[in-house]
Design goal:
Oligomer: single chain
Structural class: alpha+beta
Radius of gyration: 32 Å
Strand content: 5-15%
Strand order of the largest sheet: 12-7-13-6-18-17-19
Shape: globular
Number of strands: 37
Number of helices: 33
Distance between the termini: 26 Å
Length: 1201
């Protein structure tokens, strides 16, 4: 049922996959104290094009009759609330009873589904890119040879791109060059030998095109750009594929002269003219929208370039077709000193002409994993510019005057003024386009291009031996790291602003980049060697490769080639960054925690209960984290209900799911690549990145985002005038319990107002605290959940243009796991003081049980300070693991990135605290959150002075959370099929009739089925009930069960994760029905490769003496053999005995991590299969070590064959 559509890696999912394809059913769930309100919305989504290289996301087609609004239904989960004491007024008891949701649809209303922001992976590229530069030949206009060689190199990069389903159209290819002035003699004059040249995609419809042209001319003239004329670019549409030709725009160039009053003030490199062209280009789309000249169909208007230095030719074509399509490129008069070439591989989106690269200043091979956070911070940074002293309103500003344009790009908000300039960043653009836009803005603010890229994509400078003799470079990165979060992700970036050209790799070096320099002065940089035809080894005088975070640069004025150290040292030496840091920066290093208790034991337990702690959190998490500095190891899978369907109270963190990297932007390995990762954070006012000054160094640098009380005191000491004068404000997030659920709205509003006013009055550090002074305050007050509070304050400060002026520390008792702290940082916190978690560590340490375990050697003997540090180390390692799942190296890039999906929160909360977060279902309101928070209080659950075991992780018999895979349910299934777990090879199986297997029981199966039907809700799919609008088809039209069962597959569960008996039994059973069993990673015993021939009449085999019920001809060989990055058990025999090979691209249950088999499970047998040692834990690394590029995947497939 899978058919190839656009190219080899694009899959459309068949309607028959409907039942399992739940990704685009949307539900709005309002959960109140004693019931669930469910508004159910379903609609059809456009089928997503998913790469063979990406984890498969299943989407569903729905008939038109289902694309409608739902009717309202409600559902009650009995036993959700126990009213008690003074908080009973928070709840209402409403009687309603539904066990399943019945969906009723009408067909006269459109769907009002909310998709949320686009997925982080909506626009991604994996491409080939390079440049050629020669300033020695051809004078200032360069040579045609450079262009020819660049086009040849582009053609050799075809394998790094992708083509359309028609076999001809491409995802995109393009070049950026110096403007070929000899091609345009009629548009030049003695007074203006270098006019501005625009390359623009216009509508094919002549009437619309002429209207757009007139508006473009009017905008130019309004800004004193004398309009010289239009030139239709000569093209050959016949060489395009049907898809590209169908989407092809009308392609034109236009020319403008420099404003006359700019000439005397402009510098020798025309920076003022370039800024005017830049700002006017950003005016075009605004004016076109105002004139109603923007259409949603194929009449897209896009300015590929508008400059007096560079020009971009690009399109939805394959590499070799670009020069055939654009006739200019083969014209001998087309000369240039440089060329940037790019071949695009659009991972999971349909190609478009504007998305081809190079962009206006950058050619990008890779992905920006931190995109959402980068966009948010740029918005905050631009809003902050609007508050600078002596600032002018941008609208109505002079876009011609030299000083005026410089002030606009450096001092004015150019993002959120839709009536004047096109936004700098937008989530409806690709990651490459946003990166290009910010990079362009920085270069227009008089940053040199390599300087801008060093700041945006920094190298891992800490403890870098390559930089030990260049402290100025290290100081540059320290300085800019405090001002600008990294645009992080695997990336090879080639750039040019017309004054220089260069290339840089990301800090991990996860893209290939090589260069050669020849005797004639030509510099060749490419994704791989061999792309330049006739390049002789004898002509090469130097060659090399870019390592992680390294850069090369060619000065197009002087012709100098500058390697990594030279260009970075030159940039870093422009300002005394080291002196500034020494004078201004304050450092908070890790300090030993104190052992003084915050509360008495009873108060501590009460506080824990109010913040949602359960017995499992202490007995499992805190004990492991404080005792061994490691997170608790869990088995795969989570069979408890999602938070929005649970009958138990949950913290707000549980309504968020972490998102993770996909194949072309792979996870990284925090163990093997720790040198490039950092959890360092900063507090204080972040100065402008557009104007560098000493004030930019005035920050508090935190070694760790997890703070103890001693470090909090150290931060507070920096408020003293003689110690830095960092003004601070502590804002309480607690409010009176008597205010009821409605009180949270007023409290949140007041908190945001206080935060904004504090920052306006000079506060540089905000501490959001839910710390209660004593038991009396705990009794009388509740709190705004810290995640809701920090998100609301963060976005309020962004909206007010104040976010860059202050750092936020969350001081909370409602954060103890790595997920909690990741959520807080992900939604804006600069640091977290988990005071109650540290208090709990002290409480745990002081218990007699803990001390006895230390005395007995079951726990390492440690001090209370060491226990708290162990807890912090466990959290930090967990944070690094979470970052690595998204391929992110720096916590500063993760901060505010909101790389989560909300599940079960209303639009009200999303808009207030989590703006921009994808939320495909609705749910809890603020009042519902307040009610659920109070439900955790001990007086509500009748658990005064003791904690409840909620059973979220392990099932507990009474009052515990429901688990889908419960022992009771398993027993019902066993009874139905006659399985007696008391019978085994170790007991009396061989003496019992039919090996102790009892007759099957239809009655017991009906009980099992009824149990499933009436079970509590646990997952979104549990809400689905099909309401057909047609008569059933005849059973004769349905495939027989034997055919359907051949499509069945087992999960990829390894031998070791499952027992040998279970693994072999599954394989034999699935093979009998013609399905496909899966080995999982870890190999298989070679004896499983052949069918059984030695089975006796009792169903016994000497080959598998531990199994029963066998038949001759049975095969225990898994149909699918899996290969993971650990390569455990991958032998020639393992490969050749497979009928299908499966390459693990991502760990389903632990995305971004490798598979893990704990040491106790590694028996002699398992160790023999995996070529390892018994008792040693086995962990596969994340898969990018094998497959971070298309070429690597192709190589792996070749090697496996």
């Amino acid at each position: 049922f899978l058919s190839t559509c656009r190219r080899f890696d694009d899959l459309w999912l068949d309607y028959s996959y409907f039942i399992q394809s739940l990704g685009n059913f949307y539900f709005t769930l309002f959960k109140k104290a004693s019931k669930h309100y469910l508004y159910t919305i379903m609609r059809v989504s456009q089928v997503c094009l998913l790469g063979l290289l990406a984890p498969v996301v299943t989407l569903a087609f729905l008939p038109q009759s289902l694309k409608t609004n739902p009717t309202q239904t409600s559902l009650r989960n009995p036993g959700r609330i126990q009213n008690a004491g003074g908080v009973a007024s928070w709840y209402q008891d409403e009687q309603c009873s539904f066990t399943q949701l019945n969906m009723a649809f009408t067909s006269d209303k459109p769907s009002n589904i909310f998709d949320g922001p686009m997925a982080l992976t909506k626009e991604r590229d994996a491409c080939g890119v390079g440049f050629i530069a020669n300033t020695k030949e051809g004078g200032e206009l360069g040579t045609h040879k450079v262009v020819t060689e660049g086009l040849s190199a582009l053609t050799c990069m075809e394998h790094r791109g992708a083509c359309g389903g028609d076999g001809v159209s491409g995802d995109g290819a393009g070049v950026m060059t110096q403007i070929p002035w000899d091609l345009f003699p009629e548009f030049r004059s003695e007074e203006n030998p270098n006019p501005g040249v625009g390359m623009i995609f216009l509508p094919r419809d002549e009437e619309k095109r002429n209207a757009v042209k007139q508006k473009i001319e009017a905008v130019c003239r309004a800004n004193e750009l004398e309009f010289v004329g239009w030139r239709e670019v000569p093209v050959d549409p016949d060489v395009l594929g049907p898809m590209a030709r169908g989407a092809m725009p009308s392609i034109w160039q236009f020319f403008v002269n420099s404003p006359t009053r700019l000439e005397p003030n402009d510098d020798s490199r025309r920076d003022g003219f370039e800024r005017t062209l830049y700002l006017v280009r950003r005016r075009f789309l605004v004016e076109l929208k105002n004139a109603g000249l923007v259409w949603e169909d194929d009449h897209e208007v896009y300015v590929a370039s508008f400059s007096s230095r560079t020009i971009v030719y690009k399109g939805m074509v394959q590499s070799a077709v670009l020069a055939q399509f654009y006739k200019d490129l083969t014209n001998e008069k087309y000369t240039s000193q440089f060329i940037i070439y790019h071949r695009r591989f659009s991972t999971n989106t349909s190609p478009r002409w504007p998305l081809a690269q190079p962009m206006r200043v950058v050619g990008h091979n890779g992905e920006i994993n931190t995109l959402l956070g980068n966009v948010n911070w740029i918005k905050a940074r631009e809003a902050a510019k609007g508050n600078f002293d002596n600032n002018m309103p941008v609208s109505g500003a002079d876009l011609v005057d030299y000083d005026s344009t410089e002030n606009i790009v450096t001092m004015c908000d150019t993002q959120d003024i839709p009536g004047f300039l096109e936004p700098v960043v937008s989530l409806d653009r690709s990651d490459s386009a946003n990166l290009d836009s910010v990079f362009e803005l920085m270069t227009q603010s008089r940053h040199r291009a390599p300087c801008a890229l060093m700041a945006m994509v920094p190298t891992a400078y800490q403890n870098n031996p390559d930089l030990k003799n260049n402290p100025e470079i290290t100081n540059f990165y320290k300085f800019h790291g405090g001002l600008l979060e990294a645009w992080d992700g695997p990336a090879l970036l080639v750039y040019s602003d017309g004054k220089s050209i260069g290339a840089s790799l990301d800090r991990n070096g996860l893209r290939p980049a090589r260069y050669s320099i020849t005797k004639d002065g030509t510099v060749y940089m490419m994704s791989e060697t061999g792309v330049i035809p006739n390049l002789k080894e004898a002509d090469i005088i130097e060659k090399g490769r870019l390592g992680p975070g390294q850069m090369i640069n060619v000065d197009l004025v002087s012709g100098e080639f500058k390697d990594n150290i030279r260009i970075k040292s030159e940039i870093a030496s422009r300002h005394p960054y080291g002196e500034w840091i020494e004078k201004q920066r304050k450092d908070v290093t890790k300090l030993p925690a104190d052992g003084e208790r915050q509360y008495e034991d009873e108060t501590t337990t009460f506080a824990q209960s109010t913040f949602g702690w359960g017995l499992e959190d202490i007995g499992m998490q805190i004990q492991d984290m404080a005792g061994s500095a490691k997170e608790t190891t869990y088995s795969m899978g989570d069979d408890a209900p999602i938070a929005c369907l649970s009958e138990r109270p949950h913290t707000v963190y549980n309504y968020f799911k972490q998102r993770f990297a996909q194949v072309t932007n792979p996870p990284i390995d925090p163990l093997r690549e720790g040198v490039v990762m950092s959890l360092g954070m900063t507090l204080g006012k972040k100065e402008s990145i557009y104007k560098v000054s000493e004030k930019g160094a005035r920050l508090i640098h935190l070694e760790s985002p997890v703070l103890n009380r001693v470090e909090m005191d150290k931060i507070k000491s920096y408020a003293e005038p003689e110690n830095g004068g960092f003004k601070q404000e502590t804002l309480s997030t607690r409010y009176a319990l008597e205010d009821g659920p409605a009180g949270i709205k007023a409290a949140l509003e007041a908190l945001c107002d206080q935060a904004a006013n504090a920052v306006k009055n000079g506060a540089e550090v905000l501490i959001l605290s839910d710390l209660a002074a004593d038991q009396a305050e705990l009794d009388q007050s509740t709190y705004i959940p810290p995640l809701v509070a920090v998100g609301a304050v963060h976005h309020r400060l962004i909206d007010d243009g104040l976010r860059m002026d202050a750092g936020i520390v969350v001081e909370t008792g409602s954060a103890w796991s790595t997920h909690h702290i990741a959520c807080l940082v992900g939604y804006g916190a600069n640091a977290v003081h988990p005071y109650l978690a540290l208090e709990t560590v002290k409480q745990w340490y002081s218990q007699d049980k803990t001390q006895k375990m230390m005395e007995a050697g079951k726990l390492k003997s440690i001090t209370v300070a060491e226990a708290q540090e162990n807890y912090r180390v466990a959290v930090e390692n967990g944070l690094l693991k979470i970052l690595s799942k998204m391929g992110i190296s720096l916590l500063t890039s993760y901060q505010g990135a909101q790389i989560f999906e909300a599940l079960g929160l209303s639009d009200e909360i999303i808009e207030r605290s989590f703006k921009g977060t994808t939320s495909r279902i609705g749910g809890m309101s603020l009042e519902d959150i307040a009610s659920e928070t109070v439900m955790m209080r001990p007086e509500v659950v009748k658990a005064k002075m003791k904690l409840i075991n909620y059973g979220y992780y392990k099932p507990v018999p009474k009052l515990g959370e429901y688990h889908i895979n419960s022992s009771d349910l398993a027993k019902l299934l066993h009874d139905a099929i006659g399985l007696d777990k008391g019978v085994s090879a170790a007991t009396d199986r061989d003496e019992l009739e039919n090996d102790g297997v009892k007759p099957k029981s239809v009655a017991n199966y009906e009980i099992f089925k009824k149990s499933l039907e009436t079970a509590p809700l646990a997952n979104i799919r549990d809400l689905i009930e099909l309401d057909s609008d047609r008569s059933p088809i005849s059973i004769d039209e349905v495939e027989p069960a034997s055919e359907i069962m051949q499509r069945f597959c087992t999960g990829a569960m390894s031998l070791g994760a499952l027992s040998r008996e279970a693994h072999e039994t599954l394989a034999i059973a699935v093979n009998r029905i013609g399905g496909k069993s899966n080995s999982g990673e870890g190999g298989e015993d070679i004896i499983r490769g052949k069918p059984l021939t030695d089975v006796d009449d009792k169903g016994r085999s000497a080959t598998f003496p531990h199994l029963a019920g066998l038949k001759n001809g049975d095969s225990a060989n898994s149909f699918i053999h899996q290969v993971a990055s650990g390569r455990f058990g991958v032998t020639p025999e393992f490969l050749v005995t497979a009928k299908q090979l499966e390459i693990k691209m991502a760990q389903g249950a632990k995305p971004g991590e490798g598979g893990q088999l704990p040491g106790p499970k590694v028996s002699d047998y398992i160790a023999g299969l995996r070529a390892s040692k018994p008792g040693v834990t086995l962990i596969s690394p994340p898969p990018h070590h094998d497959i971070y590029s298309i070429e690597d995947l192709a190589q792996l497939i070749h090697d496996l064959h």
